[in-house]
Design goal:
The chain is an alpha/beta fold. It is built from 14 helices and 18 strands. The chain folds into three domains: 121 residues, 3-Layer(aba) Sandwich (Rossmann fold); 230 residues, pyruvate-formate lyase- activating enzyme (Alpha-Beta Horseshoe), CATH 3.80.30; 59 residues, OB fold (Dihydrolipoamide Acetyltransferase, E2P) (Beta Barrel). The chain is 36% helix and 23% strand. It is globular, with a radius of gyration of 22 Å.
Length: 430
Amino acid sequence: MRVDVITLGCSKNLVDSEKLLKQFEAEGYTVRHDPNQIDADIVVINTCGFIGDAQEESIEMILSCCELKKQGVIKGLYVMGCLSQNFGKELQVEIPEVDKYYGKFNWTNLLQDLRGKWHTELENRRFITTPSHYAYLKISEGCDRRCSYCAIPLMTGGYRSRNQEDIIDEAKYLISQGVKEIQLIAQDLTYYGVDKSGVSTIADLTKRLSDLDGLEWIRLHYGYPNDFPMDLLQVMRERDNVCNYMDLALQHISNPVLERMHRNITAEQTRDLLAKIRQEVPDIHLRTTLMVGFPGETEDDYAQLVDFVKDMRFERMGAFAYSEVEGTYSARHFKDDVDEETKQLRLSKLMRIQQNIAADINQNKTGKVFKTIIDRIEGDYYVGRTEFDSPDVDPEMLIKADRELSIGDFYDVRVTDAMDFDLYGVVENN
């Protein structure tokens, strides 16, 4: 019997899907993870419920699979993840064609419902769906932050750090499967350990992971600026296999907006933190995410955000327009009073500014040599990444395929040309 698992949303969802796929495989199922091929006996959709667009995408996928079920292409349809965690009862009423809905964490019951068993001995094992040389490693569940716009704590509950030994065991397994680069992820990476000991232990965990043989890169995703653990920067500076890269979601810089967002940090504290990070790790590449159009955002608030982006010159930046999510503090207490046209104009302007910054930063890399991992071959080019680039979201290194390179191997690559978001290079004699 075959099962297709479809993952929507973030890399944390992907890890859940990979663990479920491993369990199905252990039960003798033929498994697949490809949204472009949906024709299995059983289909499981792992949904996202973070913002309106993500919710809409999840619902569209459910409806599409319901149609396939009606046509007899698939037999069983099951839905799990954040959307069904938050809106399971409503979905059951609105889309009853789904055989059963599961939440964010009770999807382990799915195998039992299908007359299988959950293998506890495989809880730190995965069916890797990413290219075999890199994988995501989730170190916690939930979130203790209470940002007013975010529904994640409502869906996932409070912060729960995984045991370090389990994380290390899973990392060793990934390495044994050929993984050379681990993307360390959590809803709030920098909060790791606070729920258990009262202080962040992410630096200690990162150090222990960096000691593992065969692990060439560790990349840190989804940090939080408030109470940032500065000892993590020392580990980054001293350990060669900890990438000088930090994904730190800042959201805004205007104090009135930050206060309404419940971010528990001021503009002054944010600027001071960024200065300290760059001082401690001079060549670090910072990725951040910003939000425009939050309720009450004035032209002055937005102007401050624009100036902030120009001043900070983030190496990597994403932005999105505020989308009201049912059940959040902002949905209950604030009027969504920035019209959609204004939101999109603000977003477009911000991204144009960042495009110019990114182009300038890339141009400054011309002639320099960077350690590069090869992800794939695409047409006439090998596509790789430097330590400053995360898969799927950051710039890529394009190398003319005029000599054979090995996917998943590292090469020293000299940058010969730079575009706004991509680099071109040639392999040095290695």
